[in-house]
Amino acid sequence: MTTRKTPRDTALGKGRLPAPRKLPTQSRSRSLVAALIEACLQILEEEGAEALTVNRLADVSGVAVGSIYQYFPNKEAIVSLAFDHILHEEATVHVPALRERIVGLSLEGALREILANMVRQELRLHRLNREFHLKYHPDLQVGLRLGPYENTRQYVEEAWGAFVKLYVPTLDAERADMAAYMIAMAMRAAIRVALEDAPERVGRPMFLDCLLGMALGALGFTSPP
């Protein structure tokens, strides 16, 4: 089994996500927490969220229950760290690959790639633990959680505002700002609602087509440019 590394920067207390009691500082304690993250993801992937208990985590990881509670107040805090691990993977592996894929693409092509990646991210987390994903959805956005942004406004302006200006430079400032906000926040919110209400729809190609149409509409296009 491949050992997953503990994230170097876990942003304790950021947002509403459950936090560990403390983060490991020594090699032995880092290995302990890494084993718990590995066990948590293994259980979620292979057995489902219903099977995730502190006792089951102890069985799979080999970490004593007492040691688990030294670092985590409950299993939700372990899931939080496991999800944080996934978000770091998204930020360091998938996001750079996405940036390479959209170089030279049209606006429609770039948006389709970005939205497809967004859907993939959301489905990945949702399938691991539906309840946790829906409950803490606002705090599980890769850019906001791990990017160099202090708040939503800065994230929208610096990440998505730049995208809109690059692809649709003729938009006036007010429309560009609103379009950036809608693409950054409303598209993800639409995915979240669908995952709660009708998750079987989210993986369909037509769902992505509709998201793309909504994003293009926010930019002022009634049909692909």
Word description of this protein:
This protein is mostly helical and about 220 residues long. It folds into two domains: about 80 residues, Homeodomain-like (Arc Repressor Mutant, subunit A), CATH 1.10.10.60; about 120 residues, no CATH class. Helix content is about 65%, strand content about 0%. It contains ten helices and no strands. Helix 8 crosses helix 9. The longest helix is centred in the middle third of the chain and has 28 residues. The chain is elongated, with a radius of gyration of 19 Å. The N terminus is likely disordered.
Estimated helix fraction: 55-70%
- State the distance separating the first and last CA atoms: 48 Å
Low-confidence stretches: 1-14
How many domains, as an integer? Answer: 2
Biggest β-sheet, characterized? Answer: none
The radius of gyration is 19 Å
The coarse overall form would be elongated
Report the count of strand segments: 0
Count of helices? Answer: 10
- Strand fraction band? under 5%
Can you write the helix and strand succession as a string?
HHHHHHHHHH
Mean pLDDT: 90
The helix-and-strand class reads mainly alpha
Summarize the structure.
This protein is mostly helical and 225 residues long.
Write the layout of secondary structure elements.
Layout (H helix, E strand, L loop, with lengths): L26 H20 L7 H8 L3 H7 L3 H28 L4 H22 L1 H6 L6 H5 L5 H16 L5 H25 L7 H14 L7
Helix pairs in contact: 1-2, 1-4, 4-5, 5-9, 5-10, 8-9, 9-10
Key structural traits:
225 residues, mainly alpha, Arc Repressor Mutant, subunit A, 2 domains
